[in-house]
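Hi everyone,

Forwarding the result from last night's run.
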Amino acid sequence: MDIYTETILDHYQHPHHTGALNDATVSATEHNPLCGDVIKLDLKIKNNVVEKIGFVGNGCAISQASISLLCDAVEGKKISSLKKLKPKDIYDLLGVTISPGRIKCALLGLSALQKALKLTKN
C-alpha cells in the first residue's frame, strides 16, 4: 500500500490551521531528532474548549499531514476528551498503516498536543 494517500498528500501540500496564534493560551513544541521534523502547536482555550488551534513547523509528509488532520479534529473539542486521545486515533485519521520507522513522525503532533494539555489548568 502506498503510504502517501491522496488525503495525506493534500494535507501535506495544503495543511490546515497553519500559523502561530498571537493570543494562544498555551503552546508546546516537539522535535523528532531522527529526521528533523519540528512542530510548534498553539491552542487558544476558552471554557475548557479549544476555541482555536494553529501550528508552525516543517517535516515529512506524514508529520505535516498528521498535525493538519489532528488540528481539524481538535478544534472545538473539550480538553477532557482530548486528554484521552491515543496513537490509534491518529492512525485512524491518517487512514494508512504506519511503519515502525514512521511512528514518531505520525505521532509528533499528538505528542505536542499532549504536552500543551499538561500545561493547562484543566
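Residues 1 and 35 are 22 Å apart (CA to CA).

Cheers,
N.
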